[in-house]
């Protein structure tokens, strides 16, 4: 019996099902991998925003991680919402020596502008987690928060990427989705560059885009793809998911994680 590639997400729960752990596991299933989870926080969240967030104790995060990794093993790890400096440090400690590719989505703020990471965790994210990343996937707001570099045009993407690479990830994907025009992302390891361009879809229902993309990259890496190939495949998947995003509730609906299955 063939065992699918195993991918672990370390992230928070989105009770509305569009982002976080829920989006990660849906993506992993859609892309033919076995998804596993370490829950870092519980949020009360819907299409209108985040109404509350409660981080889990570090000991609970550590126990979940050891339970999965020591018995089942992992072929790629994706991190998302980590909530606090203590949890960032805990996860960084756990990832040291795990021996699998790590995709770090440095989640700081929700789609609606709600904070998902304490300001005090910034140094831990920069100095302890980013150096462990095979790929870091900040959007433009997260890039500015991490580095102070504000991207206002496609020409600024390389400068922003260099600033993130200075913290030690092997590759960085600067997501330019907030720029006008086509959705343009820059992937680079400081030597080679890959510009990924996709048409912008006129669809406001984009909740979960960042979680979905990072998880899709982790799936590609778990299957043995190179970083550029994994990111390219993930970009295609999330572009389709955005195009198929649907209204849910009164606010911003989710991307459609199952679009490729139909």
From TrEMBL:
The keyword ATP-binding applies. Keywords: ATP-binding, Kinase, Nucleotide-binding, Thiamine biosynthesis, Transferase. Residues 14-256 form the Pyridoxamine kinase/Phosphomethylpyrimidine kinase domain. InterPro entries: HMP/HMP-P_kinase_dom, PM/HMP-P_kinase-1, Ribokinase-like. Coiled coil: none annotated. Catalyzes the phosphorylation of hydroxymethylpyrimidine phosphate (HMP-P) to HMP-PP, and of HMP to HMP-P. This is Bifunctional hydroxymethylpyrimidine kinase/phosphomethylpyrimidine kinase. It comes from Streptomyces mobaraensis (Streptoverticillium mobaraense). The lineage of its organism: Bacteria, Bacillati, Actinomycetota, Actinomycetes, Kitasatosporales. The gene is thiD.
